[in-house]
Amino acid sequence: MTPLAPTLEAYFSQRLIGQRQASAHTVAAYRDTFKLLLAFASQRTGRAPSRLELEDLDATLVGAFLDHLEAERANTARTRNARLAAVHSMFRFAALRHPEHAALIARVLAIPPKRADRAVVQFLSEAETDALLASPDRSRWVGRRDYALVLLALDTGLRVSELVGLRCQDVHLGTGAHVRCFGKGRKERATPVRPETVAVLRAWLKERRGRPEDPLFPTNRLGPLSRDAVEHLLAKYSATAAKSCPSLHDKKLAPHALRHTCAVELRRAGVDQATVALWLGHESVRTTDIYNHADLSIKEKALARTKPRKVAKGRYKPSDSLLAFLEGL
């Protein structure tokens, strides 16, 4: 076995899990990156992954791997950048253990992320939200569970991992009603809920009859729902809602769309970006900028507050030949 194997093992066990206390999702994503990279390097070099050297993972091979992700696996630039971030993280760790490979490591760390187009986020209109909430069959236990889950997601903007991770004890329905969760980056936050949602959750908890540590939204076997289960139920209810709200036919409804819908509603109501960032558990206020671009009505309100300038009509004419040249570029 070459030094690469114990370096990788130490990176995951000591640095990623032990020191950084990375979430299970981060560990899984980084693990998958190196499974793909080692398989690619093994195919290129003809050596088994356990026989690969650190020198085999040079900048040329890593660059070819990134191209392979886009060209052959049809990954987006964002996925490519996420894989590159995992490689960079491991190589920064390797730099401390293998200073003899400093030049090779520096060249890999110099590989830049790729610029990616940012699509406008998808969110639901008021009519689409009403149609979605009307879809669960509330005469059945599963329908009442799903109605409470979707309503809470729209009200709080919780991530799907935060929703399925909620326990009965995380719901507080007294004065200052809120739900408490551990979000991305291991940050704990409390998010308030509206009176209508409080009434639904109170009825659900009474029916749920769970212990404080039990999942708030369980499966039929009383275990926690998975992310895939939430995606499946949303797809089912979206198809049902599309019968009465045709605009849903053009939208692939993912759980994150409910989070976006909550954020857009907050911005429409005039809530400032800093508060929305705290509400959603964003690391930076700048992340909330996407919701300003998503909803045209926010820009229309801003435009309505402005006054037209009384400027005479005309065409700009440069007063200098050099300026004319630059203007013509």
Q: Can you describe this structure?
A:
The chain has 329 residues and is mainly alpha-helical. The chain has 2 domains: 106 residues; 179 residues, Orthogonal Bundle (hpI Integrase, Chain A), CATH 1.10.443.10. It has a 3-stranded antiparallel β-sheet with strand order 1-2-3. A hairpin with a 5-residue loop joins strand 2 and strand 3. The longest helix is centred in the first third of the chain and has 22 residues. The chain is globular, with a radius of gyration of 25 Å. The protein starts with a helix and ends with a helix. 27% of the residues are buried. The mean pLDDT is 87.
Q: Which terms summarize this structure?
A:
329 residues, mainly alpha, hpI Integrase, Chain A, 2 domains, three-stranded antiparallel β-sheet, 15 helices, 55% helix
CATH-scheme architecture of the largest domain:
Orthogonal Bundle
CATH superfamily of the largest domain: Intergrase catalytic core
Chain-averaged pLDDT: 87
Structural class: mainly alpha
Shape, principal axes of CA atoms: globular
User: What is the CATH C level class of the largest domain, in words?
Assistant: Mainly Alpha
β-strand percent reads under 5%
Tell me the helix content.
55-70%
- Sequence of strands across the biggest β-sheet: 1-2-3
Describe the sheet with the most strands.
Answer: 3 strands, antiparallel
Fill in the CATH topology of the largest domain: hpI Integrase, Chain A
Ranges where pLDDT stays below 50 over 5 or more residues in a row are none
Number of strands: 3
Radius of gyration: 25 Å
Distance between the termini: 59 Å
Number of folding domains?
Answer: 2
Run of helices and strands: HHHHHHHHEEEHHHHHHH
Work out the helix count: 15
